[in-house]
Automatic annotation (TrEMBL):
<keyword id="KW-1133">Transmembrane helix</keyword>
<dbReference type="InterPro" id="IPR054549">
    <property type="entry name" value="UVB_sens_RUS_dom"/>
</dbReference>
<protein>
    <submittedName>
        <fullName>Vitamin B6 photo-protection and homoeostasis-domain-containing protein</fullName>
    </submittedName>
</protein>
<feature type="domain" description="Protein root UVB sensitive/RUS">
    <location>
        <begin position="38"/>
        <end position="272"/>
    </location>
</feature>
<dbReference type="InterPro" id="IPR006968">
    <property type="entry name" value="RUS_fam"/>
</dbReference>
<dbReference type="GO" id="GO:0016020">
    <property type="term" value="C:membrane"/>
</dbReference>
<comment type="similarity">
    <text>Belongs to the RUS1 family.</text>
</comment>
<dbReference type="Pfam" id="PF04884">
    <property type="entry name" value="UVB_sens_prot"/>
</dbReference>
<keyword id="KW-0472">Membrane</keyword>
<keyword id="KW-0812">Transmembrane</keyword>
Length: 451
């Protein structure tokens, strides 16, 4: 009896079929039939990860499509900007000094490299949690630098130097933000440990798009000389570039909970007892706004935001005119400052806590019930049952379990956008003298109010 054996790829496509031609187990001939792949499909596979679409997330194709379109527009604008820079450096002008042009170039490169180091040091921790924001911001930096480049031919030496330096700094910021955010997005897309291959294929895609952009851009540069027309073309192409980039990052459905996404998810659960999945949150989240995870009460009468910090940030910060409330739980310290219709919260996570997600939920919960809590004092959140805001640990565990089932990755700490600080608490009598003197002590939670 003959049987068939198949070679398949990770997507389940049949590559080759083997058939025992004589039905014998010994000395039988095997008939081989390879699956024919159309030329267009074979070319397409050269630019897509192996096993597509099963080896990447379902938002990969949409992102790469928009990303390729924005790269095409950027390639043309970069040629127009580079021509302006060459004119500004004196190319084609016999009266210009090569030494002066070299000094301009060296000064710009030096400052931009210093800016690269400083920006990476200051903002490197924040790029991964807010990768969609920084991916879009990178292209805003890049387009701003190109518009500055267009000014260089018309400026005298010293203003020209300041413009070249400013454009170099913007490109440096663009490079750090774009490279770091792309790495985070690639890690999101890769499902089967194929991150290296995915990056390699993305490089192939960018190469083809850049070549096409250079070809079209070369024609544009040769045909367009009028300065006014150049500015109009730059504005149109920059608009297309930013719009495509915006659509690209909007299409990404991140599975990590940063401040904004966590606030959206927790608020929906508090209001409607509904668990949102990554796709639903992606439709609601903002790219440029609400990165701090802006909080609000149920009525909307009280608004504010929350941040992470140290124990000293909570105990020493006491702005005039604000009411201050301090809380301590087994996992963190929380400070709340309230004035009029606005509030500010600060969380200091204790040592041993790897995730700040539970603390962020409590902050969102505090904000949501701010209206009712102020009537009895904010400490009521930790003492009373609903509706003042108290949610039991069992309820929170059930919530987090439901989030994991919806596809959220709770292991990634995307809430803290700076170096995570943890508070080490030793012997309570020695480490917390201020709290021990406080007369308010309720069931393990302590509160201080300063008017």
């Amino acid at each position: 009896m003959s049987k068939s054996v198949f070679d398949i790829d990770p997507a389940g496509n049949v590559l080759c079929r083997y058939t025992d031609g004589h039905g014998g187990e010994k000395g039988g001939l095997i008939k081989t039939e390879k699956t024919a792949v159309p030329l267009a499909k074979a070319v397409l596979y050269a630019f897509l990860p192996a096993g597509y679409p099963h080896t990447v997330t379902d938002d990969y194709l949409a992102y790469q499509t928009y990303d390729s379109l924005q790269a095409f527009a950027s390639s043309i604008t970069s040629l127009l900007a580079n021509r302006a820079v060459l004119e500004g450096l004196g190319v084609g002008d016999s009266s210009s000094s090569p030494t002066g042009a070299l000094i301009l170039k060296i000064t710009g490169d030096t400052i931009s490299r210093i800016a690269t180091i400083m920006f990476a040091h200051r903002m490197g921790q924040a790029i991964e949690p807010e990768c969609k924001f920084y991916r879009f911001l990178a292209d805003i930096f890049n387009d701003s630098a190109q518009f500055l480049d267009l000014l260089t031919p018309a400026l005298p030496y010293l203003p020209k130097l300041s413009v070249i330096v400013s454009a170099g700094v913007l490109r440096a910021l663009c490079g750090v933000a774009a490279n770091a955010s792309k790495a985070s997005l690639s890690a999101h897309f890769a499902l089967t440990g194929n991150l290296a291959e995915l990056n390699a294929k993305e490089a192939s895609q960018e190469t083809v798009v850049s070549l096409l952009g250079m070809l079209v851009g070369t024609l544009v540069v040769r045909m367009v000389e009028d300065k006014q027309v150049v500015w109009i073309m730059m504005m149109v192409l920059a608009g297309v570039h930013l719009m495509m980039n915006y659509r690209a990052v909007r299409s990404v459905k991140m599975r990590s909970l940063n401040r904004q996404r966590a606030t959206i998810v927790f608020r929906e659960w508090l209001e409607h007892n509904t668990i949102l999945d990554p796709a639903q949150v992606a439709e609601r989240e903002s790219i440029l706004l609400r990165g701090r995870g802006d909080l609000a009460s149920k009525s909307g009468d009280y608004t504010g935001f929350c941040d992470f910090g140290s124990y000293g940030d909570i105990k020493k910060f006491n702005p005039q005119g604000y009411h201050r409330y301090d809380f301590e739980t087994a996992a963190y310290f929380l400070g709340i400052w309230h004035h009029g219709g606005s509030f500010y919260m600060r969380i200091a996570v204790k040592e041993g806590e790897t995730s700040a997600l539970s603390a962020w939920f409590d902050a969102v919960n505090h904000a949501y019930h701010f209206d009712s809590a102020l009537k009895d004092g904010l400490e009521s959140h930790y003492e009373n049952e609903m509706p003042l805001g108290y949610v039991s640990e069992d309820q929170k565990k059930s919530l987090f379990a439901a989030l994991a089932k919806k596809g959220w990755d709770l292991e990634v700490n995307a809430l803290e956008t700076r170096l995570p600080i943890r508070v080490r608490v030793g012997d309570a009598k020695k480490a917390l003298p201020v709290l021990e003197k406080d007369p308010a002590h309720h069931s393990g939670h302590q509160e201080v109010k300063n008017d």
